[in-house]
């Protein structure tokens, strides 16, 4: 088992909160990690992937939770039965002990109103994504912590600045633990099955999906893959898919809740403006994007737009993953001014301090490549700490 950087954070959270929820995409390694934590801490383990356990909990939710609460417990795949949350609330309010329940979900169950209302003040939510490069390479570096520290010169970029062949392999491989080390053919088959049997199947938990809707979601996934690292337009997508704007927005919201894609808001000093400006679309895993695009090693080695967009999205996934085990709480944005000057990523601390990151897949940096950073620095003023090319 590859060591997960977030494990200690989860263990520490159980020492301070009555309920800890770990959310993340399917196959990211939640079950393996939670089983390891359960063994370490002596938690009883249950999973709603087990039909017998699920049926028992469905039929007698209060009795089920009361019974398993005799010991601290981990419940896997709790999104299958969100109705269990009120029963958990009753027990944790009655016993009022820390670390009573460790829950996992393959969708963003914290978005569910029943969870928000029932467990507010009683829980903390953490996210587990597919493996980061520093986890695969067993590095101790956290790029976010170094970017906001005086020790940025210690940043080891060798893991990111390998040859084109090395980086290409990282883009194609992605970070799902099960397929690390797979050859290209087996990896392709795994991703095909992931889309058909995981993404489409799990989407049915959010909405009743017939064959036509399933086809629309599959086509939307492929369209989003062609636009990865780009500004997104619901209107253009709706015209291509021949479905309503609202339906496109709903499907993308479902894909976000399932941790397949993520929309990045633009950075502005006036936070209220963020929701009115165009967002960028990224996928949680570059291997999935490459597979949706049928982009193999030969295509990426020849570079081009696909390569550049995937490199940018790869950097995003690393920032997102490392943010979950960073000492700093950061938000990730992109920047684009009225003159179309752009910065790929803006990392912002809670106090408003920011760092700009510009991703270039080529070997040279031109003067025009700095225009976005100059604009960002002028816009953010004293909050602009540094630039990272």
From TrEMBL:
AAA domain segment(s): 17-136
Pfam families noted in UniProt: AAA_14, DUF4143
Domain DUF4143: 204-362
Gene3D superfamilies reported for this sequence: P-loop containing nucleotide triphosphate hydrolases
InterPro entries (UniProt xref): AAA_14, DUF4143, P-loop_NTPase
Classification via PANTHER family: CONSERVED PROTEIN (PTHR43566), DUF4143 DOMAIN-CONTAINING PROTEIN (PTHR43566:SF2)
Name assigned to this protein: ATPase
Species name: hydrothermal vent metagenome
